[in-house]
Design brief:
Helix content of chain B: over 70%
Oligomer: heterodimer
Radius of gyration of chain B: 20 Å
Largest sheet of chain A: 2 strands, antiparallel
Helix content of chain A: 55-70%
Shape of chain A: elongated
Strand order of the largest sheet of chain A: 1-2
Strand content of chain B: under 5%
Number of strands of chain B: 0
Shape of chain B: globular
Order of helices and strands of chain A: HHHHHHHHHHHHEE
Distance between the termini of chain A: 116 Å
Largest sheet of chain B: none
Distance between the termini of chain B: 22 Å
Structural class of chain B: mainly alpha
Number of strands of chain A: 2
Number of helices of chain B: 10
Radius of gyration of chain A: 32 Å
């Protein structure tokens, strides 16, 4: 009798279990879990990241970069990339040479307003990867485009040119660097960098190109110095560049070897005329 | 002493330890291979990087396992008393066990390194990184660095085992030692090279403590030469030599302490 009761009890529990399981699955099939793309929000301190990676800084850097790669690209917003910028900065401290890390920093962080973080990551990569031309190239671009610092931009671009794997790349990057220098605010500073580039340049054609750019900057320095002298003498900014000849400050105008010429900006200061981007011939 | 080295080697083989090594190796290969898929620009470098980290972790686990199996458990089961009934010194026992485990670890390092090498070859895709990984002398030099690293951990764990009365204590303390010694490098760099990123309060709070700790704890990150194989950047000769001197000297100190403690230990 006792055995008979036990059998019934066991069967009842078994049936209840089956019913319970079916009910649970039925409910779950009508209530799917919808997860939003989870943004990267948790960034432990670097030391904790290293400890979690069993004391291995390289593994910690790999994990941090994978976390950055998995951060959903919802928008280019500054806030969206705040945590990613922090975690990538940590990764660059743990392994400054990580190729994916500097690459996504250049591709994402710079463009989402985290230029400072991107610059730090790229500078560490440029210093750690002496064989790689890309970190200084991206760093130069960040300085030139985001910070409007042509001199530093050109400096880093020139570092990239020195590391270029082919003569063609070296020439192209050096040319970009020299053009950026001409856009700088301080023509004398730009001239110094350009001279250094010319001295170290390999290849006759590139040396000649950089020498021509140097002559152009020297002409600009002469014109700008003369414009300042004009302002001191007459108390007003220069009206046209030819005024320098009329009042006798210059006996002849310096020539532009690139034949692009000069123009006066709003404050009456001579500036270099840049070649048009659409390939049209420059005005003579 | 050679008899203890032989017995450690045979115990390692009979205990099917190499089955464990192969199993961990296969997990490692899978881990490194999968990790390469998470790298858009240099999958081979990432596979090698993650694989080296995997070998570093695996070797420590094997070292702790063997010290526990071949020393701590022998003490606990009193089988050591029978061994010591023979005309052998306790120093021979400790040094012999250490040398035996070192050989087991060397063979494990070679097996794991060969498996990783196959994985790295398998991940060579169409996209090449800015610089290809160097898999010749730099790779094997990195492996020697990992072996030296785990020898320091083994000597520490053996030292704890020589005085511990609990079987699991050497394992637990060994893991803590490994974590601390391997993390010391980045802590020193953060505090003293990067000046705590300008956080003066942190520097004042932890600077003196860490300065003292570095005289007691070896900086095991100095034995991690993977930049050589990953990026072709060899460590300079001075740091290479001083890292080896540090590892050997620290191991000798700990082994001396282990022998000293073990000779004064009650075995029954």
């Amino acid at each position: 009798m006792k055995l008979y009761h036990q059998w019934w009890l066991a069967s009842l529990i078994f049936i209840f279990a089956i019913v319970g399981f079916l009910a649970a699955v039925s409910w779950q099939s009508n209530h799917p879990i919808v997860r939003q793309d989870e943004e990267l929000t948790v960034v432990p301190p670097p030391l904790v990241q290293v400890l979690l990676a069993f004391g291995d800084r390289y593994l910690a850097a790999d994990i941090a970069v994978v976390r950055s790669l998995l951060n959903p690209l919802k928008d280019d917003g500054y806030d969206h990339f705040r945590s990613q910028a922090k975690i990538q900065l940590d990764a660059s401290m743990m392994n400054p040479r990580h190729e994916d890390n500097y690459y996504i920093a250049a591709a994402l962080l710079s463009w989402s307003g985290h230029v400072e973080e991107a610059k730090t990551i790229l500078r560490r990569a440029a210093e750690g990867r002496s064989f790689d031309m890309l970190p200084p190239l991206y760093l130069g671009f960040d300085y030139f485009y985001f910070e409007h610092d042509s001199i530093l931009g050109a400096n880093w671009m020139y570092q990239a040119a020195l590391r270029a794997d082919s003569e063609q790349n070296r020439t192209s990057l050096s040319r970009i660097a020299s053009r950026w220098l001409e856009r700088g605010e301080d023509a004398r500073e730009a001239l110094k960098v350009l001279d250094a580039m010319r001295t170290q340049a390999r290849g006759v054609a590139l040396k000649a190109y950089l020498a021509q750019r140097g002559e152009r900057l020297k002409a600009l320095v002469i014109l700008q110095d003369s414009a300042r002298a004009y302002y001191i003498r007459f108390g007003k900014p220069l009206g046209t560049i030819d005024d320098l000849l009329k009042v006798g400050i210059l006996t002849r105008l310096p020539l532009d070897p690139a034949q692009l010429g000069f123009y006066l900006d709003a404050s009456g200061m001579p500036q270099l005329r840049q070649p048009p981007f659409n390939g049209a011939p420059p005005p003579r | 002493m050679t008899s203890f080295i032989q017995s450690t080697w045979l115990a390692g083989l009979r205990g099917r330890s190499f089955h464990l090594v192969l199993m961990l190796g296969l997990i490692l290969v899978g881990w490194a291979f999968l990790a390469s898929f998470f790298s858009p620009r240099h999958p081979q470098t990432v596979a090698l990087d993650v694989g080296i980290s995997g070998i570093r972790i695996t070797l420590v686990l094997l070292s702790l396992f063997w010290v526990q199996e071949l020393v701590s458990k022998e003490i606990e089961r009193r089988t050591l008393v029978l061994t010591m009934a023979h005309p052998v010194s306790r120093m021979d026992y400790i040094i012999g066990r250490y040398a035996g485990i070192s050989v087991l670890l060397l063979v494990s390092t070679i097996i794991l390194a060969l498996l990783l090498l196959l994985t790295v070859f398998a991940t060579e895709g169409e996209y090449g990184a800015a610089r290809k990984v160097s898999l010749g002398i730099p790779y094997w030099a990195t492996m020697i660095g990992l072996w030296l690293d785990v020898l320091v951990v083994t000597s520490f764990t053996l030292c704890i085992a020589s005085l511990s009365t609990m079987v699991f204590l050497p394992f637990a303390v060994g893991i803590m030692f490994t974590l601390a010694a391997r993390s010391l490098g980045i802590v020193l760099e953060f505090l003293f090279v990067r000046q705590a990123e300008g956080d003066q309060a942190l520097l004042f709070q932890f600077g003196p403590v860490i300065k003292s700790i570095r005289w007691m704890l070896p900086d095991l990150s100095r034995l991690d030469w993977r930049d050589w194989t990953l990026y072709g950047l060899s460590p300079d000769t001075d740091s290479l030599i001083m890292a080896i001197v540090m590892a050997v000297a620290y191991s000798v100190i700990l082994l001396s302490l282990a022998v000293f403690c073990f000779q004064r230990r009650e075995l029954v």
